[in-house]
């Protein structure tokens, strides 16, 4: 059983569309991170959220941490082909110190 | 600044052979991690080191896997003997602050065991 469930697993959209991907768990996390991974490369950190209800914006990307700190979402406005990649959420479960990763959402933005 | 450097980028070997993956972390980062990525299981933490000392190897699949960090600038992950189910992308990552903090990943080693 995956500790962090990401949905959808795959998403293919046209340039200019908006989208939201989700990261859900039944466990409480002290923090959640979002990474983007491009083909043939390692993941790169986009943002860390630590407070329940927190919202962070990074240009066209908006990240939200759930009030109960069990889930998070990533919203992309006006997607561009450069947003294509695998989006991974990773969290530190309460009482642990290690990051656990979800399997990711593979996003394709078509020109 | 150079990031985390892994070698080789690709490795193709036959079942039963020994495989050694190499990693140079970012200078000054006290933590080094080895992860494995597959479609089925995603990214899994195999082992991590703090100041060259192995802290948690609970993710190492079995005795065929071993990891060493002889100094602050070099680590190896060895599989002996290799099996087809070991085929995956192996990532090395480093962090200046800890296992739950921002990780800096290398580009990975794509391992295929035939």
SSE inventory with pairings:
The complex is a heterodimer of chains A (111) and B (114).
Chain A: E1 5-7, E2 10-14, E3 19-24, E4 29-37, E5 44-49, E6 55-58, E7 61-65, E8 71-76, E9 85-93, E10 99-101, E11 105-110
Parallel strand pairs in A: 2-11
Antiparallel strand pairs in A: 1-3, 3-8, 4-5, 4-9, 6-7, 7-8, 9-10, 9-11
Chain B: E1 5-7, E2 10-13, E3 19-24, E4 31-38, E5 42-50, E6 53-56, E7 65-71, E8 74-79, E9 88-95, E10 104-105, E11 109-113
Parallel strand pairs in B: 2-11
Antiparallel strand pairs in B: 1-3, 3-8, 4-5, 4-9, 5-6, 7-8, 9-10, 9-11
Task: Report on the architecture of this protein.
The complex is a heterodimer of chains A (111) and B (114). Chain A is mainly beta and 111 residues long. Chain A has strands at 5-7, 10-14, 19-24, 29-37, 44-49, 55-58, 61-65, 71-76, 85-93, 99-101, 105-110. Chain A is globular, with a radius of gyration of 13 Å. The model of chain A has no long low-confidence stretch (mean pLDDT 94). Chain B has 114 residues and is an all-beta fold. Chain B is globular, with a radius of gyration of 13 Å. The model of chain B has no long low-confidence stretch (mean pLDDT 95). The A-B interface holds A 2, 30-31, 33, 40-45, 48, 88, 90, 92, 96-104 and B 4, 41-45, 48, 56, 91, 93, 98-100, 102-103, 105-108.
């Amino acid at each position: 059983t995956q500790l962090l469930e990401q949905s959808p697993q795959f998403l293919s959209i046209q340039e200019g569309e908006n989208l939201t991907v989700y990261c859900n768990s039944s466990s409480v996390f002290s923090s959640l991170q979002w990474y983007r991974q491009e083909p043939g490369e390692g993941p790169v950190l986009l943002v860390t959220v630590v407070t329940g209800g927190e919202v962070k914006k990074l240009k066209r990307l908006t990240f939200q941490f759930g009030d109960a700190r069990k889930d998070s979402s990533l919203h992309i406005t006006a997607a561009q082909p450069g947003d294509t990649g695998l989006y991974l959420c990773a969290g530190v479960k309460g009482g642990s110190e290690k990051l656990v990763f979800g399997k990711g959402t593979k996003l394709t933005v078509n020109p | 600044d150079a990031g985390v450097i892994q070698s080789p980028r690709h490795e193709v070997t036959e079942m039963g052979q020994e495989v050694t993956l190499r990693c140079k972390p970012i200078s000054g980062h006290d933590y080094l991690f080895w992860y494995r990525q597959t479609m089925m299981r995603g990214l899994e933490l195999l082992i991590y080191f703090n100041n060259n000392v192995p802290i948690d190897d609970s993710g190492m699949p079995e005795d065929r896997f071993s990891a060493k960090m002889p100094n602050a600038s070099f680590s190896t992950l060895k599989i002996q003997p290799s099996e087809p189910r070991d085929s995956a992308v192996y990532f090395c990552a480093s962090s200046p602050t800890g296992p739950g903090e921002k990780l800096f990943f290398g580009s990975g080693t794509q391992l295929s065991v035939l």
